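Forwarding these from the shared drive since the link keeps breaking.
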Amino acid sequence: MKKGKIIAIGGLVIVAAGVAGYNLVNKTPDSSLSSSEKISQIITDGGCVSCHSANPELPFYSKMPVAGKIVKKDVDSAYKAFDIEPFINAIANGEAPNEVDLAKIEKVVLDKTMSPAKYYLVHWGSSMTSSKTDMMISEIANVREKFFENSLASAEFKNEPIRPIPNSIPVDSSKVLLGEMLYHDTRLSADGSVSCASCHGIQTGGVDNKRYSEGINKQLGGVNAPTVFNACFNFVQFWDGRANTLAEQAGGPPLNPVEMGSASFDEIVERLKADKDFDKMFTEIYAEGLSQHTITDAIEQYEKTLVTPNSAFDKYLKGEKDALTAQEINGYKIFKDNKCATCHAGVNMGGLTYELMGVKDNYFAKRQIKRNTGLTDGDNGRFAQTKIERDRFRFKTPGLRNIALTAPYFHDGDIETLEEAILEMGKNQSGKDLAPNEVDDIKAFLNTLTGEYKGVKLTNTNL
């Protein structure tokens, strides 16, 4: 046999072996598997944990001088943006994953941005073939349908990452009245000058529209006051997540020396008990009478009524196609195209995860120049509670409902307008300089998120 033919045959054998190997590592999961099992297998085959994990599975070439630096940078950047392990664990245990994690994975599959080309060149099995992509999109929809009830949406929008706000959630109506009274009661503060409503006004979009709220003795807080409307849908409360429930949150400001300044709840209880009519009313509902637990429980029950359904966008999701204009619909498309609907997913369009402020750009470097000051304690975000370095500059994502009414924006209240907020989020989170028409359309969409409170469209008397 001639040498040329031998080389040609050898080449064909190598190609055939390569194709066989490719097909083996890129095998689509068996159709008999459950949705969770299919998703788990594709993620495992894709090597996602190699980068998006606290304990990455580093490849052999990570020890090489040049390649190692590239690998370390990529792994640090990937883990900083997204920790995939909680999602994998939830799926493996047949539990509901976080809606944001689900939306993030769905988005990268739709955009075909994972795995990166340089990773795929070495790890063939990470390739998202068309059959894997189709399967992932289908199974993610199944997971969403199974765990995130969306009966309010029309059939067309059942699989959207955002769900309409329900008209109400279960509460104890007898306790709601007490909670409303307490919410507006300045006796929770040491000098009788501040109530919950002072910083979270019901008539002002659930906020006070100040950069920092004013407590007793005209002291200023260190972060911007988030809206109380729809806070019941948040997975934790406060920017740094230090309260797990609305009741825990309600127990914080009364004892904060900058906010309400009371020394203890015993002190607050004594002031309230001096009002015999109020004390009697309270004891009729709570057998144990006034206490920190009953006071914060009543406020929580009231705050659960502060939901704002039936925004124009919710009506659109429910099937009213004429509820939005063409510009507003395009704004929603741009919003999703730029990954905004991943972190701002769910009923409240946020409030479900801690996210890093400045994934693509250094927000805090720019803020220091503008402020002409150093960083504040409030800038630390979740790190203030955990002391874990990865949590520095990571905050509970704010919900976007009624966002047109709640300026100024971000944890530091340093962004005065919605246009500036949109531009900053484009740069910091998506790494994109949005065009003026894109900003206009996104703003038009965000204006459709103002809902109704007690059947009337929410307004802000400050605006």
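-- next protein --
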Amino acid sequence: MNWTSLKYLIKEGFRNTWSNRMMSIASICVLLSCLVIIGSTAMIFLNINSLVDRIENENVIMVYINDKDKDGNILVDDAGVEAIGNQLKALDNIQSVEFVSKEDAWASQLKTMEDAQAEFFTTVSSDIPLPDAYKVTVANLGEFQKTVKEIKVIDNITVRENSDLAKKLDTISRGISIIAIVIISVLFAISLFIISNTIKLTVYSRRLEISIMKSVGATNSFVRLPFVVEGCILGVISGVISLGAVWGVYELAIHSFGDFLAELGLSALPFTDYALPMLGVFIAIGIVSGVGGSLITMRRYLNKEGSEISEI
């Protein structure tokens, strides 16, 4: 196929899109609806995942240093405390290890008390009733229990952790991913099916033209390309419009629930961080749906010869 023929067929694709504008609008509306649902669902899941990640970062393992025994004898000196920190950092599945001195921990504790209580505790004794500690954040909650067991092997420490919460958060994260994949897959399949049927109507309305083209020796590629171009056009238009629609819906939702989220100490993710990737995904889904629907439909008709097509 030379450039002249290719240029002609691309023009035919654009012309067909305009000539069959009612069907084109119907296809765009179908894709728009599916993409808006996909985009809105994606932003909901992204915000939920962000919240889960935030909770995960707070779901840490506190490792307290037993620096003295019951008789007051020193078990761990400053060098020992540092060595325990190095042991923690050397373990697998460790995202971060933060040292919390007993002085800092006691100062934070006093700030949570009323003035009278804080004054009482500082007056009664100058000793700090808290031990030095390490705040350990795990990288993968799925291996939380394993990490806790590895930490407990270290001598002269006491471990405080919440394995039940870690297990629930891991389950939530997996559930969110599975639900998102299922919803997007179902909507994509629906889009492909409807676009295929819409293009089928277009092919049916032009069955005589296709029959004549096949009768005079037109190749399958020659007949198919305008429909492929038409599918690309519908996909790109649907993707761009869908991004604007999702953006508007998301900003409206933030405006409506902004005060409620602020009261809970939460904030929504900025849409601008995901606008370009989402546009790329929308256009890709639109093109695949449009082109895929065209190819699926045309394959059936192009397997027939000339006049047989006009009888369909």
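Residues 217 and 239 are 36 Å apart (CA to CA). The first helix runs from residue 3 to 19.

- D.
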